[in-house]
């Protein structure tokens, strides 16, 4: 069969020359009441994306209904002569190298039930992966880290997390906890973290961390802070810095110094090809990025000083595309 006709019919040829369905991947990113879904080709092209919204996914009936909605969404977007080869499922929890979900303390969803329900209705294997690790894989495959096989992804939001990719696969660790970058201690004896330690990176470089640094700087300078709606409302601080507010700029300098110190430690241990910075706070990368690079270079070995530190480019797609990539590699496709 000619290549042109193969493309027209949307079929592929196996190693023996026989034609068969084009195999696609499904990448799913699970939140508390939203399940984001992408249909992804084996080359990493997103053919379709959508979301299923649910009031709850706590009971068996609710989980099965969510799985059926995902299956219906996928079926609507499959073209003739296409079939799903595998499903990758990005979860807000600890997942071992054997694809076992250990815990998911921050989301009230029956995740184990969701895995079983998806396998039942989709008829293919479902491969779970931690959501930060999935985002790291997505950025490596089709985002800011494309072309790299070894990178560290850092997500900065209300918390600080991350994922580490080595030789194209996520590092999971013995207990599934590899990549918990937010709990590197950067200020011994510092602020109390929910994990039980003091001085964790998350306490200084999350959105809450920046608010803390800014309020402390205002108090030290005898200045009134700009209005903030809550303890994680960091956007007005960035806005103030853009207008030249010296207190806001000073807080951002501290923020950058803490993050640079942590990345410097990671570089000494891991020596990645790149650091990719994502999460909601990365929207202000133009403000803190230059100081972050300077702080990083001062905190690491000279041989690691030129490692690129770049802003993530995939946004919410990273988790879905990364989950699809995880399924692709687990299936050996």
UniProtKB/TrEMBL annotation:
Q: Which PROSITE patterns match?
A: ROK (PS01125)
Q: Say which family it is in.
A: Belongs to the ROK (NagC/XylR) family.
Q: Can you say what this protein is called?
A: ROK family protein
């Amino acid at each position: 069969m000619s290549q042109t006709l193969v493309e027209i019919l949307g079929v592929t040829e196996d190693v023996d020359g026989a034609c068969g369905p084009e195999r696609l991947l499904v990448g799913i990113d699970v939140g508390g009441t939203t399940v984001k879904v992408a249909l992804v080709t084996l080359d990493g092209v997103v053919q379709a994306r959508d979301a299923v919204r649910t009031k709850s996914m706590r009971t068996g009936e609710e989980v099965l209904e969510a799985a059926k909605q995902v299956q219906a969404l996928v079926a609507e977007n499959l073209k003739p002569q296409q079939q799903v080869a595998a499903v990758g499922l990005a979860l807000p929890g600890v997942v071992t190298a054997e694809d076992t979900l250990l815990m998911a303390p921050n989301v009230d969803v029956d995740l184990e039930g969701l895995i079983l329900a998806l396998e039942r209705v989709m008829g293919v294997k479902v491969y779970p992966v931690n959501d930060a690790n999935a985002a790291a894989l997505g950025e490596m495959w089709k985002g800011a880290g494309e072309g790299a096989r070894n990178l560290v992804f850092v997500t900065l939001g209300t918390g600080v997390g991350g994922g580490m990719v080595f030789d194209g696969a996520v590092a999971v660790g013995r207990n599934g906890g590899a990549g918990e970058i937010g709990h590197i201690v950067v200020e011994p004896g510092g602020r109390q973290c929910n994990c039980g330690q003091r001085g964790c990176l998350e306490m200084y470089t999350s959105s809450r961390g920046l608010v803390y640094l800014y309020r402390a700087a205002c108090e030290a300078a005898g200045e009134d802070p700009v209005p903030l709606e809550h303890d994680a409302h960091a956007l007005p601080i960035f806005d103030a810095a853009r207008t030249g507010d010296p207190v806001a700029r000073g807080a951002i300098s501290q923020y950058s110094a803490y993050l640079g110190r942590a990345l410097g430690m990671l570089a000494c241990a891991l020596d990645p090809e790149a650091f990719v910075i994502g999460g909601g706070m990365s929207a202000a990368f133009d403000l803190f990025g230059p100081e972050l690079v300077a702080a990083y270079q001062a905190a690491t070995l000279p041989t690691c000083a030129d490692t690129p530190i770049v802003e993530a480019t995939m946004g919410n797609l990273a988790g879905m595309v990364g989950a699809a990539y995880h399924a692709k590699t687990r299936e050996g496709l």
